[in-house]
Amino acid sequence: MSNFGLRIVSLIPSATEIVAALGLTAVLVGRSHECDYPPEIQNRQVCTQARLNSERSSAEIHRDVTDLLISASSIYDLKIDILERLQPTHIITQDQCAVCAVSLADVERAIGQLINSHPQIISLQPQTLNDVWNDIDRVAKILGVESLSLIEKLQARVQHCQQKTQAIPASARPSVACIEWIEPLMLAGNWIPEMVKIAGGEPIGEFSGTASPLIKWEFLLKANPEVIIFMPCGFDLQRTRAEAMLLTKHPQWQKLAAVQNQRVYITDGNWYFNRPGPRLADSVEILAEIFHPEIYQYSYRGSGWDFLNS
After folding, report:
1. Average per-residue pLDDT in the chain?
2. Among 76, 91, 95, 239, which is disulfide-ready with 235 (CB 3.0 to 4.6 Å)?
3. What stretch of H or E contains 228?
4. pLDDT tens per residue, range 117-161
5. Does the model's pTM come out above 0.70?
6. Domain spanning 8-125, CATH class
7. Torsion of Cα atoms, 298 then 301 then 306 then 310, to 10°
8. 147: which strand partners?
9. Identical fold at 8-125 and 171-307?
10. Are 256 and 226 in contact (CB under 8 A)?
11. Contact assessment for residue 267 and residue 273, using Cβ atoms and an 8 Å cutoff
12. How far apart (Å, rounded) are the C-alpha atoms in residues 290 and 298?
């Protein structure tokens, strides 16, 4: 199948990165308002907008999202007029999280309103690393390109980390809490616990391959992780630092082992951990560098991660 005639709209950042990694940037005609990588896609037509203010605090954003979901409203608006003008052959969205991006149901409703095009919907719903690799392969097959070399390169990077951490004794593998949202507290689920293990850590809780759970302070105190990593969905390093610092004012913050051992970190969750695409390989390397700097030196500090109190 030739790429000629393809006109792709991606409504989720991870899918945009998959399309670009597959060498199809030239036929990407539309994107979501959150798609910001790679840089060369910035001039593509923006097909979505959020119904909430993402600059508000994590607590306020959570309240806004909850109110929208209770009212059965979508968190995002899909610009039907722009889709009509772009006449896409394929639209890539997700059917995993109502908060993350435009939902499959919203896209289906929008397509029903189009007059001049009848695009094929590709919906992604990854929960594990293997799901992500399979999604890349599925997208490639539908779009008529080869994906084996890309997937093999990404898997090789992950396997390199895994092979080096296999020799690390259990006593040297820190217990880890990955915080995906700050107010209320939410642990990172889905592919994150798996990545923590590959990078030489032990995630608290049993949430691999499942939706990220809300937790109480009591849960965090009882688990008493040796490492805490903040990776809020949609936040960059600077924003994550500002939000995480609010949590340090909690009266029980100083009781945590990670705090006492100065092993509390911030990451750019928006660019790395929250996006189930090619840069999850980078995310594994970031975790490995945080957990075992004596073994791994990938030089992500300052861009992908940093100490909370640096």
Report:
1. 92
2. 239
3. strand 227-230
4. 899 999 999 999 999 999 999 999 999 999 999 999 999 999 999
5. yes
6. alpha beta
7. 130
8. none
9. yes
10. no
11. yes
12. 10
